[in-house]
Structure prediction request, 265 residues.
Amino acid sequence: MEISDNGDKLVKKAIVLAAGEGTRLSPITKAIPKEIIRVGKNPAIEHVLKVLKAGGIEDVLLIVGRKKHALIDYLGSGERLGLKIYYRMQEEPKGTAHAVSLGEDFIEDDEDFAIMYGDNYFTPYETMKDIVEFHKEKGGQGTLVLHPVDDPTRFGVVDIDENNEIHGMIEKPTLEEAQPYKHNDHWLNIAGLMIVNSQIFSYIDKTEPGKKGEIWLTDSIEMMREDRNRFYGYKFEGKRFDIGTFESLREADELELERKEENDL
Prediction:
């Protein structure tokens, strides 16, 4: 089904995925949610929310898992951050697409909204304004924020043309599976941030479980794209870390402390 372009619709809502257990950061995450581990002077989730707010987001639905009470206690209603924050529980780890589907009644029909992973560190925050503007200009049904990586096996990666239109994607491939998606000497990974139209929910409903028996958002997006819905890739040139490992957490922490020191000068 081909969809008309999205015109000048505003992007005012976001779904943030924060249900993961953070097993790669154990034993820290046995005590606290990974989203409130400090990056610089603030918890990781606060950086996520500041990115979204910088792009004009006003309402955020946080999808949480069990043992996330400290995260909810820290954020509360969101008033302190100038946002309205709501919560929904993913009772079992059924995948990223399933987590997004829990927010279907939070999003209006034919509404474009942001999706961001709760363990992402992005800088500068203001890039979100450019992402929203890019999405409006392209007029597609989705914009995926892309970032170059040397190891594609931890991420979803895409095939993209010179007009930044996406022509294929795969979630956490083996090195052999990833070869057709290689661009020059690297891969473009889906950097845990995107804008999509609410049509995505109907495709999530049709998505079969994939690797590890979970329902992957990448598979739902690919199904939607194959149904003549156009998706574009915004190539992010700033700094981005998935803080799900100790190494990336350390790198993000060092970068944030350096950035704060420069801003304080």
User: Anything to note?
Assistant: The CA atoms of residues 34 and 130 lie 28 Å apart.
